[in-house]
Amino acid sequence: MKEKISVIVPVYGVEKVLGRCVESILAQTYENIEIILVDDGSPDNCPKICDDYSRKYTNVRTIHKKNGGLTSAWKEGVRRAEGSLLGFVDSDDWIDPDMYERLAEALEEKDADIAMAGLVFDYADPGYPPRRETNRMEKPFYDRESLKAIFPVLLNDGSFIGRTLQPSRVTKLFRKELVMKNLDLWDENVTVGEDLQMVFAAVLDARGVCAVPDFYPYHYWYNVDSMTGGHDPDYLRKIKLLRERLEQISQEKRVYDFRPQIRNDFLSLAIMAVKNEIWRNRQESLGKVLANVRAMCRDASVQEALRNHTMDRIGISVRLYIFMMKHGMAFSCYLVTKVFFTFYYRIFSHIQ
Asked: Which end of the chain is least crowded, N or C, by CB within 10 Å?
C-alpha cells in the first residue's frame, strides 16, 4: 500500500466555503489519505461541519482546540497525524484531484524530502483573471549539494521580495520526520510569514527537494476587497518578529549565514508596510498617517536595513522608496504611493 498522506486543514470562520475545501481533498486520486480538520475554536458553524464530515467519512478526523492561530492549529494537526507524509490545505482554498498523487510520485521517484507544486490565485471577483505563482528554483530536483549551491539566493536574490524559495506550505508535500524535527522552531506568535519560517527550516534539513514543473493544482481563494482594505497598524512589529525568527533558524542550523538575505527580505516587507499604512489606513487623518510613516522610517531596524541592504537588482521605484525612507520623507512616500495605487487599480478596473 502507498504511504499514508495526512492532509492538515486549519479551520476558523469559513463555514460558507469549508465544504468546497474538504470535498476537493476527498476527491483526490491518491488512494491512502487521511484528512485532519483542526477546529481552532471557530465561532461559527464550522465545528459542526467538521464533525459531520468525521461521522460520514472514516478517513476524516476532527480536532477541536481553543483558538491559538494558524500556526498552532497546523502544529496540533502534525502532532496527531498518522501519515508518513504531510500536506496542508487552508480551509478557504481547494485543490485539484491529482495534486497529491503527482507530488507523491515525484517524492518517491527522487527519494526527496519535499515535493513542490505551483499555485493559482483565484479571485472572488470574476473580473480579475487567475494568476499563477511558482518558485524560482530552476531545476526539477535538488540533492543536498545542489541545494547548498542556491543557499546564497534562497531567501533573496538581490531583487525586491526576491525569494528563490516559494514559501507556501500548502503547495508542498513533506516527509513527516522533517516536519517533526523542526516543529519547535516554528513560532506561533509569527503571523506574517508563518509559512516562510516553516518551509525555510525544513529546506535547510532536506536531503532533497523536487518540483513538478508546470503544475498548479492549488487554488488560493483571494478576496479582491482585501486589496483595498485590511489596514494592519501592527505590521512593522510583525515583520520584525519574522526577521528575528528567521535569524534564529539560520543560527540554529549553522549551514549558511542567511542574515544579509533576511535583512533584504525584511526591508522589502518594510517598504510594503509603508505602502500599507498610506494606502489602507482610512481611519486616521493625513497628519496621523504621515506621523506613522515617519515613525516607521525612523525605526532602528528599518534604518539599519536601509543602510546595509545588498539588493542590487531593484528597479527605480524601489530605489526611490529606499531613498525617501532613509531620509524620513513621509510626505513624498505618501504622494508616490497614492499615485501608484490609483493608477494600478484604474488598470484593474479596465480589465473587468
From this structure: N
Mean pLDDT over residues 96-103, rounded? 98
Q: Are 326 and 306 in contact (CB under 8 A)?
A: yes
Can you tell me the distance from the alpha carbon of 208 to that of 73, in angstroms, rounded to the nearest whole number?
27
Query: Are the C-beta atoms of 93 and 220 separated by less than 8 Å?
Result: yes
What pTM value is reported for the model?
0.92
Query: Position of cell 509569527?
Result: 190
Measured in whole angstroms, how far is the alpha carbon of residue 313 from the centre of its chain? 23
Alpha-helical segments (H) within 31-126: 46-56, 70-80, 99-110
Output the CA–CA distances (angstroms, integers) from residue 244 to 250, 262, 270, in the order listed.
Answer: 10, 9, 14
User: What are the residue boundaries of the structural domains of the chain, listed by start?
Assistant: 5-226, 233-351
d(CA 54, CA 26): 12
CB 51 within 8 A of CB 40: no
pLDDT tens profile 130-148: 788 887 888 999 999 999 9
Tens of pLDDT, residue by residue over 295-344, are: 999 999 999 999 999 999 999 999 999 999 999 999 999 999 999 877 66
Report the candidate in 216, 3, 211 with the shortest Cα–Cα distance to residue 95.
216
pLDDT exceeds cutoff 70 at 256: yes
Angle between helices 330-351 and 259-280 in degrees, nearest 10: 80
Task: From residue 69, give the alpha-carbon distance in Å to each of 33, 206, 214.
Answer: 25, 27, 32
Q: What percent of the chain has pLDDT over 70?
A: 95
Quick one: what percent of the chain has pLDDT higher than 90? 87
Instruction: Supply the pLDDT for residue 347.
Output: 52
> Amino acid identity of 228?
T
Q: Are 97 and 27 in contact (CB under 8 A)?
A: yes
What pLDDT score does 349 carry?
A: 44
CB 65 within 8 A of CB 39: yes
With CA atoms as reference, report the closest residue to 217 among 78, 74, 101, 127: 101
| Domain at 5-226: CATH architecture | Alpha-Beta Complex (3.90)
